[in-house]
Specification:
heterodimer, A: alpha/beta, Rossmann fold, 2 domains, 15 helices, globular, disordered N terminus, B: two-stranded antiparallel ribbon, Amino acid/amide ABC transporter membrane protein 2 (HAAT family) (chain B), transmembrane helix (chain B), LivM-like (chain B), membrane (chain B)
Chain lengths: 426, 358
């Protein structure tokens, strides 16, 4: 009798399992607060790509993907709440789009054995997979961005930045402080002086910083801003007639919402990016057919093709490819978070694969290994054309200066390993 | 009928002066403590701990701290966030510098350091009052957050200015760091909350508390009857900051695990704790708990109802949630300006007469 009951119970469990075996990729988004205008576009792109996979291919490897959304308002306490609320549902990977929340989650995901994918943000030294087993930040991180921006300026100046003055306007938080150390090192190497100008979050008030820029007359201004801080900075730069082509924003300071409010004054503003922009990619035909026209797009698809939408979609593409890889490695479509981590470490998105996905030349090649969780770090620059109302790419993908970055990454990750008592693997 | 003094005879002054003179209250109190200590730790999961109970207990400690200063001693403070930051950074520096010392000692020391800082910023209270003091404490808020952002020594020169709590254990159980179980997190916060609430209750009904209340009600009169305003005001700042510092230390080390000054301890935190004591009830320990519960639990509850039950879009739910919480605050303040504690006291008054009111 007991055996019979056990068999029945086992059968019931097995019958019930496939029904709830969706692949769960929580979307910790923010659509409210001072960063909501930016966060909402990213979240839409993220959702829409998985909707496309579900509608067109029936999910990944036959398993549908669910993206339960949770509003964090870019607030770390709400981020923790969202993480706790969603992790029980079989979450495979988190992408919180907030450096602050990422710092909270890095120790937690290691304890819970869930991957954290932070493309272009988060903790830079997480590139060192020997220490950060569960965190991935390919294709590019903050330090890569800082280095690529300086490389671009070197190009502009015939390879010599000696005696130049560069100002960094940054969000006074973990996010904005990330590039400082790299820029200081690069300043030593190339002989430019760096002025650091912190802006307190959320960043609507930065008159004094721009007054200082007007007085000091730096040759170039770099910006690490997010949310309302970007628009305000670009507006202030336009007000003091700072030459826009000498003003370069990071990945997160270069979207339509940042430049449009400034109008013609923002023309010529440059920003870093690690992916293409616009709708000239074959994937949008499928997207239109399966997602937008049937009315399944997140929020009605009002931001399709924008910079941040593309970035959200790109994050989803990488996660989807990692899931696919993990399914191949594990030999089963129902993967566990640990198997997904293996998928990330074996991930290789070649240019051919990107073209196959309908995104030719959209991003750099992403190849991750056990010790390299950050890919090649290649990034490119885009420039805003205010009259046409669009971003255009102005450089090819450029390698950052690994000679400067590698020791810094090693130093920072080793400091973390020591603090957290982690012994390096691989 | 059931809730009454009749038949509950007191035979000593000690009995007469106890916190819960009515038997049913007393039983209720013991029952809640028993459930909190003996039942909840065994059934709690990490969502309940991290999203609901741990923040509730930590904010309750902060609210008791601010209530001592504002509710009992009458000194308005907008520096709570800054003082919580002092507690957080103090415990971080202590944890990293002296890994061998038990974490409980670090947390208490962090409270003591915050008490010293609080007294320093309390000095202006000897000269200025009311709104002007509020502005002076606001300066403390901005100065402290700026300091923790500006001086790299406080965050051990980390690249991002973030502080991370390393793992520390009590009797072999991790209470900070990622490996902490839900019940360990909950229990350490519960122990601190219960002990501190007990201390606060006994301070406020003793001579120290009476001095604070005398200063609050009329400082000149208090001075004439022999209350030294210097010691009374500074002791209120010290005790209040001690509580707030412990709350900050727990918030960083046990609850969040990583923090940065401007994000976790900004001016919003000061307002949040101030709203807690205004809604909960000024000058009431119970009010501090009630206010913390109201402002911590209600948003989480509304979010779960609106998003999980009704399936609304998350942004709409977030906006509606703000509107509902705001409307409820206004409603409560109109209906009962003395807060939830007063509402609770009125309920008890009515219960005593039930079912035969006059």
């Amino acid at each position: 009798m007991k055996l019979k009951l056990a068999t029945v119970a086992l059968g019931a469990v097995m019958a019930a399992a496939p029904a709830m075996a969706d692949l769960v990729v929580p979307n910790l988004s923010y659509r409210t607060g001072p960063y909501g205008a930016n966060g909402t576009q990213y979240a839409d792109g993220f959702n829409d790509y998985f909707t496309l996979l579900n509608e067109r291919d029936g999910g990944i490897g036959g398993e549908r993907v669910r993206t339960p959304e949770c509003e964090t308002a870019y607030n770390t306490e709400k981020g923790v709440e969202c993480y706790e609320a969603t992790k029980g549902s079989g979450a495979l990977v988190y992408n919180p789009l907030s450096t602050g929340i990422t710092y909270q989650l890095i120790p937690k995901v290691a304890a819970d054995k869930i991957s954290l994918y932070t493309p272009g943000y988060g903790r830079t030294s997480a590139k060192n997979g020997k220490v950060f087993e569960w965190v991935f930040n390919a294709p590019a991180n903050y330090w890569d961005g800082a280095s690529v921006a300086i490389k671009y300026l070197l190009d502009q100046n015939g390879g010599d930045l000696n005696g130049k003055k560069i100002a960094l306007v940054y969000h006074n938080s973990a996010y904005g402080k990330e590039p400082i150390r790299t820029l200081q090192e690069l300043g030593k190497k190339h002989g430019f002086t760096l002025t650091e100008l912190p802006v307190d979050p959320p960043g609507q008030e930065q008159k004094s910083q721009w007054l200082q820029i007007r007085r000091d007359k730096p040759d170039y201004v770099l910006m690490w801003g997010w949310g309302v801080m970007n628009q305000t900075a670009i507006q202030e730069a336009a007000n003091i007639r700072f030459p826009m082509e000498n003003f370069i924003g990071t990945y997160w300071s270069g979207s339509e919402v940042d430049v449009k409010p400034v109008g013609a004054g923002a023309n010529g503003y440059k920003a870093l990016t690690f992916h293409g922009v616009g709708m000239d990619y074959p994937i949008y035909e499928d997207m239109k057919k399966h997602v937008i026209e049937p009315g399944k797009a997140s929020q009605g698809g009002q931001f399709v093709g924008s910079v941040l939408y593309s970035r959200g979609m790109y994050a989803a593409v990488v996660i989807a490819e990692a899931i696919k890889k993990a399914q191949e490695l594990a030999g089963t479509p129902q993967i566990t978070p640990a198997q997904l981590r293996d998928g990330f470490e074996a991930l290789d998105i070649t240019p051919e694969r990107l073209a196959e996905l309908g995104l030719p030349d959209f991003g750099p090649e992403i190849k991750m290994t056990c010790d390299n969780h950050g890919g090649s770090g290649m990034a490119r620059l885009q420039q805003w054309d205010a009259s046409a109302g669009k971003w255009s790419l102005i450089t090819e993908f450029t390698e950052p200066d690994q000679e400067v970055l590698d020791p810094l990454i090693l130093e920072d990750s080793e400091a973390y390993a020591k603090e957290a008592g982690i012994s390096p693997r691989c | 009928m059931l809730y009454r003094e009749a038949g509950d005879f007191k035979t000593s002054y000690r009995d007469d002066g106890q916190t819960f003179p009515i038997r049913l209250d007393r039983w209720g109190y013991y029952a809640i403590l028993a459930v909190a200590f003996l039942v909840v730790p065994f059934v709690i999961d990490s969502y309940w701990a991290n999203a609901v109970l741990v923040p509730f207990l930590i904010y309750a400690i902060a609210a008791i701290g601010l209530n001592i200063l504002t509710g009992y001693a009458g000194q308005v403070s907008l520096g709570t966030g800054g003082f919580m930051a002092v507690g957080a950074y103090a415990v971080y520096k202590l944890m990293v510098a002296f890994p061998g010392v038990p974490i409980v000692i670090h947390i208490v020391l962090a409270g003591a350091i915050t008490a010293v800082v609080g007294m320093l910023f309390g000095l202006p209270s000897l000269r200025i009052k009311g709104f002007y003091l509020a502005v002076a404490t606001l300066a403390a808020q901005f100065f402290l957050v700026w300091l923790f952002n500006k001086v790299p020594w406080f965050y051990n020169y980390s690249a991002s200015g973030q502080i991370n709590a390393p793992e520390r254990t009590i009797l072999g159980w991790a209470v900070t760091g990622p490996a902490t179980t839900a019940s360990a997190k909950y229990l350490i916060c519960l122990v601190f909350a219960v002990v501190l609430a007990w201390v606060a209750r006994n301070l406020t009904r003793g001579s120290v508390g009476r001095k604070w209340m005398a200063i609050r009600d009329m400082d000149i009169a208090a001075e004439i009857i022999g209350v030294n305003p210097l010691t009374a005001k500074l002791s209120a700042f010290a005790v209040s900051s001690f509580f707030v510092g412990i709350a900050g230390a727990l918030l960083f080390s046990v609850y969040l695990g990583a923090a940065e000054a401007s994000e976790a301890f900004g001016i919003n935190k000061s307002f949040l704790v101030l709203f807690m004591i205004i809604i909960g009830g000024l000058g009431s320990i119970f009010g501090s708990f009630a206010g913390a519960a109201f402002l911590v639990l209600l948003p989480v509850f509304l979010k779960n109802v609106l998003v999980a039950q009704f399936g609304w879009p998350t942004d709409l739910a977030a906006h509606i949630e703000l509107m509902i919480v705001g409307a409820l605050i206004v409603f409560f303040l109109i209906v009962e300006p003395h807060g939830l504690a007063r509402l609770w006291a009125l309920t008890k008054e009515k219960l005593r007469l039930w079912p035969f009111p006059h």
